[in-house]
Structures are given as C-alpha cells and as structure tokens.
UniProtKB/TrEMBL annotation:
Domain of life according to the entry: Bacteria
Family: Belongs to the DAPG/phloretin hydrolase family.
Cofactor(s) named in the record: Zn(2+)
Pfam families: DAPG_hydrolase (PF18089)
UniProtKB keywords: Hydrolase, Metal-binding, Zinc
Protein name listed in UniProt: DAPG hydrolase PhiG domain-containing protein
Domain named DAPG hydrolase PhiG: residues: 50-256
Gene Ontology MF annotations: hydrolase activity; metal ion binding
Keyword Zinc: yes
Originating species: Mycolicibacterium iranicum (Mycobacterium iranicum)
InterPro entries: DAPG_hydrolase
Transmembrane segments: none
Length: 260
C-alpha cells in the first residue's frame, strides 16, 4: 500500500478495519490559527530559536504559540497550538508508531493532503518510531513534497526525558527523500490539560538547518543551494499542521481504543 501515489481513498482502500475513520470533510481552521495568518510574519524576538527548544518544557505559554517568521540565526520558524479535548499525550505517542506502515493509515491524518507513507527500514512494526525514518509524500498547500522524517530521541533536541513528566515530545529531523540533504527540525510537544491535551508544534527550517547528509565539500556546494530553494512556504506549513492535528484529534481516542 505504501507505493500507491494518489490522494484520498480509492477502490478497496476503505475495506480495512480502520477505513471507517477516513473522513474527507475537515473542520475549519481554529480561530487562533486564522488570527496568526492575518497577523503575518512575527518579529524575530517574539519567536523561539532552535537552540532554546528546551523552553517548551517550561510552564505557561510563549509569546508566539501560533505564527511564523524569520529568525536572527537564519531560516524561519513556525509555531502551532492544537487543543485536543479527550486526547492524552500517550495516544499521540502510539499514533506516530502506528500510522507509518500503511499509506491508508497516513491518509486518515489529512485526507486532503497526505498521499503515501512507508518506513525506510521496510519493517511493518507499529510499536515504535524513534530511531526510524518515515518516507512520505504529501501536499503542502498546492506544492507536492517528498520528504524523509527521521524521528529522534527528545534529548537530541535538548528535551531530556526526565523533564517531560506526563508530556510527550515527538522530535525529528526533516529532509528530502530525493536528495541526501536535511532542511529542518520539528518538535510536537503534547502535554495534558484539564480536559485532555494540547499540542505545541515547532518547526525550524532553512538557513543553518540545511545540511547534506554524509556529504563532502563538493556535495555541500552543489546540493545545499538546490535544497534551500525547495523549502515550504511557512504559511502553508502552519495551515497544514493545524489542519492535520485538529482533524486527527477529533477521532484519535476512538482509533486508539480500537487498535492500540
């Protein structure tokens, strides 16, 4: 199933134990995300720098929980908050391992943008994701993206496990699946709230975060500028993240109860 390259469900795709959860009707963007889009780019001093990612573990909120902008250190960042009543952080920890072995599962997450997903190691194991790379194809806005997402231990991004408490931090290096180059980082911090959980997503892309994997000076000189021109639009990334996280959160408790 992972090799199929088309949007949505076709043919017998819905004839699975989880097919009933595929719903192409998606809710409108949350108001706080719409406000962030209307605001436009944020000042760099209102944004979280990559080397300060550990501040996500502090109580309270940052000046920019929803928004985007360019950083003093180079590149840009995107922030999105998702309220998720009835959801627990552990449900998301399960989801990131479960969804990656079948494109039909991946499409549940964003039925209007996700095309395919497979684990680079070729294994169908659903019980873990840290240390593995997910090879995906999806739309960001109207742009078609082929990406490699390498999931990392939170410690690699300055988020020690002994400080996570009841929260979960999904961390990854973002790169191309067509070229040996990485272009950014992400953190999805999911922490419990009074009525469920909230996800605080952060992306850092471009600038100093673009790097050739295992490359030499020649490869870096040739490939790095090409990869830098293929960065997503920060507004498209903000909208996509808000859409997929809100959509899945609406039925994740039922999905988790059925298939965990």
């Amino acid at each position: 199933m992972a090799g199929r390259s088309y949007l949505g469900y076709r043919g017998d795709d819905a004839h699975t134990a989880f097919g009933e959860f595929f719903d192409p009707d998606m809710a409108a963007l949350p108001e706080h995300v719409v406000d962030a889009l209307h605001h436009g780019p944020q000042a760099d001093q209102a944004l979280l720098e990559f080397n300060s990612a550990a501040r996500l573990l502090e109580d309270g909120y940052h000046q920019t929980e929803n928004g985007y902008g360019h950083l003093r250190s180079g590149g840009f960042t995107v922030a999105v908050r998702t309220d998720m009543p009835g959801v627990t952080p552990q449900m998301w920890d399960w989801w990131f391992g479960w969804h990656g072995s079948d494109s039909r599962r991946y499409k549940l997450w964003h039925p209007r943008a996700h095309v395919s997903a497979r684990w680079e190691d070729g294994a169908d194991a659903d019980d873990h994701y840290v240390g593995r790379s997910s090879i995906i194809e999806e739309y960001l806005g109207s742009s078609y993206a082929k990406a490699a997402i390498r999931f990392l231990p939170p410690e690699r991004m300055g988020l020690p496990s002994n400080r996570l408490g009841d929260s979960v931090a999904v961390c990854a290096r973002l790169g191309s699946s067509d070229m040996p180059v990485d272009i950014g980082w992400l953190v999805h911090q999911i922490r419990p709230t009074r009525d469920g959980a909230e996800m605080r997503s952060r992306f850092w892309m471009g600038g100093p975060h673009v790097r050739v994997r295992h490359g030499n000076l020649f490869a870096n000189t040739v490939v790095r500028p090409v990869a830098a021109r293929q960065l997503p639009d920060p507004r498209d990334l903000l909208v996509h993240c808000a859409q997929e996280m809100n959509h899945l959160a609406g039925f994740l408790p039922a999905l988790h109860a059925r298939f965990r």
